Amino acid sequence: xxxxxxxxxxxxxxxxxxxxxxxxxxxxxxxxxxxxxxxxxxxxxxxxxxxxxxxxxxxxxxxxxxxxxxxxxxxxxxxxxxxxxxxxxxxxxxxxxxxxxxxxxxxxxxxxxxxxxxxxxxxxxxxxxxxxxxxxxxxxxxxxxxxxxxxxxxxxxxxxxxxxxxxxxxxxxxxxxxxxxxxxxxxxxxxxxxxxxxxxxxxxxxxxxxxxxxxxxxxxxxxxxxxxxxxxxxxxxxxxxxxxxxxxxxxxxxxxxxxxxxxxxxxxxxxxxxxxxxxxxxxxxxxxxxxxxxxxxxxxxxxxxxxxxxxxxxxxxxxxxxxxxxxxxxxxxxxxxxxxxxxxxxxxxxxxxxxxxxxxxxxxxxxxxxxxxxxxxxxxxxxxxxxxxxxxxxxxxxxxxxxxxxxxxxxxxxxxxxxxxxxxxxxxxxxxxxxxxxxxxxxxxxxxxxxxxxxxxxxxxxxxxxxxxxxxxxxxxxxxxxxxxxxxxxxxxxxxxxxxxxxxxxxxxxxxxxxxxxxxxxxxxxxxxxxxxxxxxxxxxxxxxxxxxxxxxxxxxxxxxxxxxxxxxxxxxxxxxxxxxxxxxxxxxxxxxxxxxxxxxxxxxxxxxxxxxxxxxxxxxxxxxxxxxxxxxxxxxxxxxxxxxxxxxxxxxxxxxxxxxxxxxxxxxxxxxxxxxxxxxxxxxxxxxxxxxxxxxxxxxxxxxxxxxxxxxxxxxxxxxxxxxxxxxxxxxxxxxxxxxxxxxxxxxxxxxxxxxxxxxxxxxxxxxxxxxxxxxxxxxxxxxxxxxxxxxxxxxxxxxxxxxxxxxxxxxxxxxxxxxxxxxxxxxxxxxxxxxxxxxxxxxxxxxxxxxxxxxxxxxxxxxxxxxxxxxxxxxxxxxxxxxxxxxxxxxxxxxxxxxxxxxxxxxxxxxxxxxxxxxxxxxxxxxxxxxxxxxxxxxx
Amino acid sequence: xxxxxxxxxxxxxxxxxxxxxxxxxxxxxxxxxxxxxxxxxxxxxxxxxxxxxxxxxxxxxxxxxxxxxxxxxxxxxxxxxxxxxxxxxxxxxxxxxxxxxxxxxxxxxxxxxxxxxxxxxxxxxxxxxxxxxxxxxxxxxxxxxxxxxxxxxxxxxxxxxxxxxxxxxxxxxxxxxxxxxxxxxxxxxxxxx
Lengths: 942, 193
Fold this sequence. Notes:
The structure holds 2 protein chains of 2 kinds. By secondary structure, chain A is of the alpha/beta class. Among the domains of chain A are: about 115-180 and about 470-605 and about 630-670, Rossmann fold; about 185-285 and about 390-445, 3-Layer(aba) Sandwich (Dimethylsulfoxide Reductase, domain 2); about 780-930, Barwin-like endoglucanases. Chain A contains 32 helices and 30 strands. The longest helix of chain A has 22 residues, at about 10-30. Residues about 1-40 of chain A have low confidence and may be disordered. Chain B is α+β, with helices and mostly antiparallel strands. Chain B has a single domain, classed as 2-Layer Sandwich (Alpha-Beta Plaits), CATH 3.30.70.20. Chain B has helices at about 15-25, 65-70, 95-100, 130-135, 155-160; strands at about 5-10, 35-45, 50-55, 75, 85, 105-110, 115, 140-145, 165, 180. Chain B has a 4-stranded mixed sheet. Chain B has a two-stranded antiparallel sheet with strand order 2-3. In chain B, strands 4-5 form a two-stranded antiparallel ribbon. The mean pLDDT of chain B is about 95. Chains A and B meet through strand 3, helix 9, helix 10 and helix 31 of A and helix 1, strand 2, strand 3 and helix 4 of B.
């Protein structure tokens, strides 16, 4: 760790330029080695450190060479297991962005919003100013006047923003991801089988990359790992395909590199995923390609469903005297018995939980039967009837695909020894965000691709001693269930759960917590937000705009560029006058800083940062290798502001036991706590001998576990799954119950009912339809390019010279219709507005389909611009997306998660012009090149 | 001795990391590139498309035309490594070599007024370190070594493939040494130069 040293070169340079006084000034902040010109001319001091890259949401283990205190080289760490020596250009860009003139090194106050004129202030002043503004608002308007946001990449902050407002008694935080990225696909895994999400867009999906080729076939559904996470899951895919011969199918409107390498590419019409999912269901069922034994005994598809409640019948509802042989005599664990149609007897029968070979019934999966005088269908039958219209031909016509390609893809998937479907971000960005992952998880369950070596639905090292359970609070961690006495534990009985909440001692905290759930923006309609502690973004905007039912007015942004990341950017720009005070913490200024922010708090780039993350069975460290100016770890300023606010506000408006991630008062605390994860007492000890402590390795035979549902647990039965039925639930009963009361998150309290959330995949129409839209006849979708992650790195010169402006991928037929030629500037317009891009005439998209990367332009407020602007209007796809705040569209959002549509909406294209204030030529990006390599390595601020 | 790169296009996904890692390692200014990645395609009838990415840099020709045309001897073959290099002290920036190269992989560094190209990172100690683009490659597609040495990384990767999968850029008598692997199952090789 170099935090308390000034480099020789820097010192000599400083002394030469400003004399010894300047050096003395530095010495007030830092201890440093006194040196001489002769010493500076000596052999360079070169060290190589282990750390992790935080250039995207995957984390690659890397090694960084530091020469005379300056980071000069980054390569992958061969020890990593997936990325090996690979590191992508986003990671390499850290050598520029760390030392970029855009890396802010001191707290700053905006002299006036929209001017980019800033006044440097001290950290003490900054923290006092933030705390004063927040507490003044709370005194005047109450705690709901404060809210926080995160997401958008590059801030290294996830959970901090989610629950930070709770510390002040406010219920509201959001991130532009959440409902539109991560939450739907991730939450669907615990809901349907109590395991890890098969999400390749982050680090959840490990199994295909463990290096033994056990995944024989992989479907990438709306995922592009070779672009999004190039060095980690991208490298993993290259090794899987080329090293082990894994077959792949790519479902993506865009001919991505993964599609180019795939055995089958299905370029479906953007927004039509649910129809394709149902087609796969239909084909597998019709051709009896599913795993019949697994479906019968390890899924809830054979359960007969009460047509009134839409929930499975319990055996006791039909036979009141029925004695459930799997019931826990201690009434702690819940293992219900259901009702099926028994092929052995030709009649309905109780279906108790047991090992398949011990089952008293042979359940029929697809049938109807009379139950309590009512005709009831099995969950499997309900799914079949939903899928039945989606023949290969009907689906091909609707999705703009070829029927034979769909069939070829399904056969590859179904005939593999082990296969799996990996999700990406794309399906989160449509109003079918819950239905698609629900449907594709269900496909893996239909095929029995669960808990097997090579499958995507896996529990990794999880092992059960008792009937599996899971808490229902953010990320299933049990943190707020235990701290507030609110929330349900699946796998435990109603009696056990009721007694837990009734006996919870702190009734005041319990009531306050519930109140904040009830008052959170958009929660009554979109109750799934409770899994990620977010509020509904468009509802929040309406609250800010109207002041009803309350007016959020002080904003703490934990990340980068909300104007580039939020749908319908103009609608957010329009409410900037409603925000009394806006705080942002981030490493560099963005459009949001330019337009909204009053107080900017500089946080660390990843070579300055401290943390840890795992790759497969190895835990690696984010090591604090460099430290410039007065940047701070992202968990420090919010904690200090909260502490300062408490000095200013008495009485404090909220329970102190709320489960708030408050962060840390000092960087030293963060560093030493991290070091302890690796067995070192302090970060200094760890950094002195990294090889001794890093990585922490979990033995392979402990980390890689399979078939856990078959392990016999304390009740003498197979463990099963951590769901209500103890089986996989492709018919998702919890979604239905969630829509009606907020169960299981809000237990014992109840939110008002809204429209039922779909318990299975049903076809969801896209919000805008190019087949009927005559004014905007094309459908556009988006995705990433390898040069940027989220809104980051637009100020990285080596990325921008290669990709200076977004390219609109347009099919030659469509280009001809629009009178557009390759390389032309084009104007892309939706009903929300227009943006500019450069046409790439290519067959990577079908006729009438368009594709482009989102964008923003930090050069628009470079000092060299005569009329600077925020750089979010020129090329930002979120100028043309919609958040439906001013729409009369019926149910524009996904049910449980409130997702709005960022992909698959209609546009028109015409020739355009290069917009003002943007750079295209490589040399224009010179102002982004490093200027801070001469900065001393400073000590921590706090 | 034939020191060169072998690039497996079955693996390459065109991410441009080799371009950027080269620039960082060799301190190359904006607008100058010692290697580029050329997207080839997509070609075919939608949706039956093929595409691959062709990383192009100095091909380490056996009869290098750049050496023949250089008026000052700046372009030369290193007698120890047999690698084609440019002596920056001798280069006068006349650019005669640029059109002489069949593949257009030499560029003028305007700031320094010298022509530059891939050096196979000859400033590194090759007993310890491989060229930066080989190390960082995000798809594990790049291999470095002496094709006359069957134990080199480059030779071993080539040995995995049938002759029908092994390609080089067009040879007009210059004898490019660099080899590309592209299986017909991924895409048909195209002559793009």
